[in-house]
Amino acid sequence: MEKSYKAVTLKDIIRETGLSNGAFYHYFSNKQELFKEVVSSHLFRLSRRVYEHSPKGSLWEFLQDTLEEMKKVQSELQKFVAIRGRMNFLSFMFEAFRQFPEAQNKVREMQKMEFALWTRVIDRAKASGEIRGELPTELIVHIFMYVPDGIYMDFLVDLNQEKYEIGPKRLWEGIYKMLEA
What we know:
By secondary structure, the chain is mainly alpha-helical. The chain has helices spanning 10-17, 21-27, 31-52, 59-84, 89-99, 102-128, 137-158, 161-179.
């Protein structure tokens, strides 16, 4: 996460982890296999966790639950960053796509799962009268889905941690208030 995939050598990895060559090769056959495991663990497991919970209540409750889960994931990533220095998650993600073309398919699957979940929540909120129904569900879903991505891009530009931490909450709650019936 500190360097690019290409810049890190197997020797660097073994030195930093404190593993012997034999111990490393017991678990992984090469650097690419290790990177694939890191991608699977960080990019997919943590990202998927945010939207795995099943919405039981209102849109408002779903937003609050999702924000809470995002905060937990952020906290896990922060622990890693605090130990190793600044993490460039976007570079990490693009490197994953370069090294493993199948990673893009996994991201697409996760986006479909996220879209379906948001669609169910928005449709239920419309049906119950929680939010107004004149905007197409797909439009509302995309607005909610793309807010965290935009905030993350903004964070990469100006590194304002506070804006990154409170941005999704402030914007999602603002969008909700505009949609509220």
